[in-house]
Design brief:
The structure holds two protein chains of two kinds.
Chain A (H helix, E strand, L loop, with lengths): L15 H8 L5 H9 L1 H21 L7 H9 L4 H13 L1 H18 L6 H23 L6 E5 L24 E8 L5 E8 L1 H4 L6 E5 L5 E6 L5 E7 L2 E8 L4 E9 L2
Helix pairs in contact in A: 2-3, 4-6, 5-6
Chain B lengths: L1 H13 L5 H12 L3 H21 L6 H18 L2 H6 L3 H26 L30 H10 L4 H12 L4 H7 L7 H16 L2 H8 L3
The chains are: A alpha+beta, B mainly alpha.
Chain lengths: 260, 219
Amino acid sequence: MMEKRMKCIAPGVIKEWEIEAYLDGIPNPRVSAHLAECPACAAEVRALLALRQALSEKLYRFDCPSVDELRDFIWGHTSKEKKRDIVKHIRLCSLCRAEAIALHRAKLEEEAYGRVPLLELIRTWLQRIAEDVQLVVMQTLAPPSWQPALRGRECHVRLYQVRPSDRPVELPESLSLFLTWKRQDNGDYTLGGRLLPSEAAGHFRGSEVVLFDERGSERAYERIGADGTFTFTGIPPGHYALAIMGEKEALVTAEVEVKE
Amino acid sequence: MARLIELCKKWLYSSKGEDNPCREIFRYAIKERDQEAWEAIEELYRPLVYRWIRQEGPFRDSRDLEEVVQDAFFRFWRYYTLDKFRRSGSLGEVLAYLRTCVVSAVMEKKRELHRRERIEIPWSEDFGVSRGPGHVPPDDSEQDLEATAVWQIVQSHCRDRREELLARLTLVGKLKAREIVRLYPDEFPSVEEVYRLRRNLFKRLRRDIRLKRMAQKRL
């Protein structure tokens, strides 16, 4: 399967892309089982990992502007030359771009401090009330299309160990995950998810949701929207594990049976 | 100062009165470098700083959280000059700068945590480690290469602009394949394509003796 000095005990069983996915932290019980058995492949993976680790540690954001430079940039406190360099860098670097946006947003939000229009406040309150009502309705009446998958502290169900360091995290007590699925014309399903209430769901805004099939292979991924929802399309019927990923590990996992 | 603090508290906790006393405390702290005023600022705004930090995401370790709070106030103390204070038109603007210092401190902590973060894969501790005929013993006398020198070596192994972009995203940005596809769908249309390119690039990088030494220090 790979360039190696020792021989793999079962050549061709694991594909190269599966190793690459595994190095990206995608759980795959078949790969794990093979690596536990095959010293050649285990050594190969270990060497690849060591090289990636060494290079990443050395190079991680080595030429990015400092956070203070970014802050000065969004406040307009930088020289023309520095500004030009940062703009050029931000065009290429998605991480600095995200940081600059976050700084800019924080600046704008706070500058508006004390100047929030009354109508905006009323709108926010009404939205919260509507969401609370929706949550109560979904939890108590449980309409057939929306299935409560996880509620508050029940969020620690795990189907796969994603990382050895996995541990349950403290989730907002009120957080609930609802799932719904709908059959499409071609027989596949659309799987929708919603975290409520949205204030607690904000904790997961932009997080990735990954759908794993029964073999532990990644089937699809999406991002949680600002309103706490996500949608997968073209999902064949079957048993899946759904994981909401944090920066390093799965924070929430749930089992899903997609069927008629 | 005690009177100013009292009036400022009244404004902060009940929005009654004017925000001038609060601004006046900032003026004392920034213009006069008054220690008491700085301490008052830390005391008055600490709850707000905690709230802003929580909005930026959770910290698992309470020591990290405390470090971020200290770092935020330090950055404000260091970078918010009298000139910047004079240009601010309201307390809101002063607090906006404090908040961006909080966000900077959180970002710095996240950068630091991410830099130190090891790439972990499940059950990796069970792997046997082979040191076959190709093993190059690490040379402890050798100085660590500078980041720019390492990057030049990596660049020299990239065959085109696309590979260089991939190397940058993987090693400088620590991005995973699916994040790369999401951010650069034109250059990298599929996760499989990223896996293939990355695999080939790393095969070349592994043959470089300087990088090999760097990596073997970690085995």
